[in-house]
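Q: Given only this backbone (81 positions), what sequence would you predict?
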């Protein structure tokens, strides 16, 4: 199954701070409460001091989203004929 949303770590401009972004069919968007599914979402800050810290948060959030997507049923294809 294809992921609906991929969490990526992006550098903020030329500074040494990092931010999490959601890459989907709609484009590259900031992380927000719209990604919250039935259970509480992992803690996400506005920006992170180190890339390792941001990557750890991205991994937690990606696992959270993948868990929800795994529970969704695949779309049923219509038979032609």
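A: Predicted residues:
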């Amino acid at each position: 199954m294809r992921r609906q949303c991929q969490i990526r770590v992006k550098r903020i401009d030329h500074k040494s701070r990092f931010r999490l972004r959601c890459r989907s069919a709609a484009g590259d968007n900031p992380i927000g409460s719209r990604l919250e599914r039935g259970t509480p979402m992992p803690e996400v800050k506005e920006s992170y001091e180190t890339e390792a810290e941001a990557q750890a948060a991205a991994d937690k959030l990606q696992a959270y989203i993948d868990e929800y997507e795994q529970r969704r049923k695949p779309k049923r294809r219509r038979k032609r004929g």
